[in-house]
Structures are given as structure tokens and as C-alpha cells.
Amino acid sequence: MMFIFPILLITVLGYALNSVMGSSYDIFEDGKVYYHIEGKSDYKQGFEEFADKFEKEFDGIKFKKINNIENVKKQIKKNEAYGLITIDKDGYEYYRNPKGESSAAKIFREVFEGIIKDYSLIDLVLNTNPMMMDKIIKEKSREYTKDVKVGEHPISSIDYYTFAELCLIILYISTIVGESVVREKDFKTIDRISISKGGKMKDLLAKLSLGMIISIIQIGVVYIYSTKVLGANWGENLLPIMLNLICFAIFSVMLGIGLATFTKDGKIFSGMLSPLIMILCLLGGSYMPLSMLKSIPVFSTLTQISPIYWINSALISISTGVNDVYSKVAIGICLSFSLIILIAILIKEKIKGGEMSA
Description:
Number of helices: 17
Number of domains: 2
Strand order of the largest sheet: 2-1-3-4
Structural class: alpha/beta
Strand content: 5-15%
Shape: elongated
Radius of gyration: 27 Å
Helix content: 55-70%
Order of helices and strands: HHEHEHEEHHHHHHHHHHHHH
Distance between the termini: 45 Å
């Protein structure tokens, strides 16, 4: 189950969702930009020419003239519109979401401000040749929306789901290790271990070793299968990738041990761990691509609470040769949570030991 299941998941999802990850889409789909003209402005004609040409170049975006600025600002704060452009006698003012823009809103603002800055749009249109707007819009749109290969190679659906499903199945190791802890409590073997020369610390290390051995075998099996059979590209930086996966495996094992230690029986343990795994995997991109998750407003921020999100992002970044902070954050989160769980277990055992001696 633990070795065959990830292979099946990677194969099925990698090929089934290839069209989803490989398809192109309009970045400005259903985009709205509001503008407001205060009094008489010499810049009105130039801006409206810009808006008209932009709408023709990108079918998904719409410019709308408004009078009530406050209502529009509320929509922008909810990411229901890209921004508000106010035109007056001195030029323009761009209002954006102060809490953070969507990717499409950022791209539009860069295009707009780039045109204003690089081509002196308003004066050029008004004083030189209004017909130049077609050329300007096309040149700048290509500059900001062209296909860019990030890193050494693009990420395919096979690459993505190799990492995503490997993380998913590593997280399920927590159930194996946790159940072994629960069974020891059910069969009272934990009491005999406590009074033996082995002790609880060695028992803890044994559980950790069990989970790590399974993880290492899983990683090896998935690596060989994905590269030799499916043609997945792990990149040239295998050592950092393995380090991230090992740290995540430590987190998974400690999660299972910790939850089993603080629950009374197997039913409570399973009832708590199973939903937790599903939530972490959902937010981490194991069921659907992270790009799709991030495009959903309610999930955009929630994804970051899942260690799988950071591990997946780190693995993708490292494999494609992109240097960023994902790996440091992923390793930090996994080891920090593991340490917190370990401290909590030691405190519990210390308290329990004190009560027994009394």
C-alpha cells in the first residue's frame, strides 16, 4: 500500500491532468478596471484611447467609468477589481488593493505604469500620433505576458504530481507509526517498555527509525519509477530535494507519534489524524495544482498553513533551478513542528513519571 499507491497516484494524476497544467488561459479573464475623471482633464482622451486598445488586445478585461469612488475601493479590497485609475488635470493616480493584489492585477498595473513611464503615453497620444497606441499596446503586452521559462526547465504534470503525491504518501506514514504507539497502549506493552532497560526514549527512537526507513524506501522507489518509467525531471540539485523530503518525513513521523501519545485510543487517533491529513494535503496541492488553489481567494492564504505547501513549492523550485526561500521555510517549519511535538511528549512523560513515583 505504502509503496504501490504513490506510483499509481503519480501515474494516473500525472497523465490525467496533463491537459489542465499544460493548457493556457487568459490571465485577464473577467478582470475589471475602474476609472474616474475629475473635472476637465487633458489626459482624458489619451487614457480612453489606452483603455479601448487594451480591451481589444485582451478580451477578458473591461474598463468602467464610475463616479462613486468609495464603493469601488471596497470591491478592490476584496479583489473583485484590479484597481481604480483617477485622471485629473495633473495626470493620473492608481489605487490598488492595500492588502495585496492578485497576480493578474499586478501584471495589469505593471503594463499600465510601464507604458506611462517608458512611452510617456498621454503626451505622446495627445501631441504626436494617436495611431501609435496600437503598436505601443502590442509591444508592451508581449513584454509582460510572453511565455517565460522559469528556471532550467518548465514543470510538467508528471513532475508536479511526482512531488505532490510523494509528499502525500509520506504524510500517511504518520498513521503507521501512530498506530504502533496506540497498539502498545492498548496491549499494555508500553508499561513493560517503560520499566525495561530500553526505556521510553529508545522506544521513541525506534518509532522514528521505523518511519524514516519507510520514507527512504518510498523516496527511492518513487525516484526510480518516476525518472526511468515516467520521465520525470528532478533537476540537478538532488541533495537539497532529498534534504527537504527527509525533514518532511521527520515531521510526519513526529506528527503520528505525538497525536497517538495524546489520544486515549485508536478510534480517537484515527478520527483526528485522517481529517488532518486530508486538509493538509488539500491545502498543500496534493489533490489539485497549487496554481489553481492560489487562484481561489479563500484558499490563497490558507495554503500557507500546510507544511506540504512549502515542501511542494520547495521541491518544484529546486528541481527547476529557481533559488528562493521556499526550501528554508519548508525545512524550518518541519523541524520546528517536530521539535515542538517532541518537547510536548517529553513534558507529558515527565509529568506522568512524577505522578507514578508519588
